[in-house]
Amino acid sequence: MDIKPLRYFQAIAEASSFTKAAEQLHVAQPAISMAIKKLEAELDLTLFHRHERQISLTDEGKKLLLHSRRILRAIDDARLEMEELKGLTKGEVRVGIPSMLGSYYFPPILMAFRHRYPELDLSVIEGGTWQLQQMLERSELDLAIIVADVLPQELHARTFLREQMLVTVAKDHPLAQQAAVSYDDFFREELVMFKEGYFHRKVVDRLAARTECTPNISFETNLIPLIKAIVNQGFGISTLLGMVIEEDPDLIGLPFEEPVWLDLSIAWRRDGYLSRANQAFVDFLLEHS
Fold first, then answer.
1. Where is the HTH lysR-type domain (predicted)?
2. Model confidence, pTM
3. If phi over 0 gives left and psi between -120 and 50 gives alpha, with beta otherwise, what is residue 26?
């Protein structure tokens, strides 16, 4: 089986469009259509349902997509490793970082890494931990920062930081006078939360399920400055890492009575090739944590 039709097939499946796939691949649409027809003839299977303006995978197409992703990922890994052995690549690091860490923990690390390795290309994607984990599993990222109580079997990870989630309140809030906050007291308040998929939100949802409480979420936003402003104005409370509020005199961070600790890890695909550029980033992060 030729590899090129598999790349065409995967692009079409992920874009749900022959036209969009052709644009992404910079290939004429008739060439892609012909390649897929030949692939279907070779397999003696129909891979796509073709509607007037939409396409979708058949059951056979869905199964081929799983194999296609594994095959193309293995080929790309092999090519990268061979190019590195010949010294032909400059090196690229694609790392996904949650917003809270991207704003407050990683900037000096990223700048120091670029200073040590100016020849490497560094691409940083911000997002929720669940989104980043999925991108990592789909090979859209080389590395990702995750918070996982149970590490998926497909990933390997190294913990680099342990941080406590703190109840965050305005300095004149009644809870600000307490040494610690119970879960019941926390869930009685109006909450300002990240949207679902972010580790900040997952922690709170997990606590709510464990204590059988219903969170009273009055604001949802992924913008940290907005969360801090809403809390500071007394319209709700939140939970944030200590690093986010340590230089903000108007906000108070309080531990839960039963402290909530997060183990932050850098992860990569267990079955993937960790390039020398990515290994350098992992080593650098662990060295500076």
1. 1-58
2. 0.69
3. left
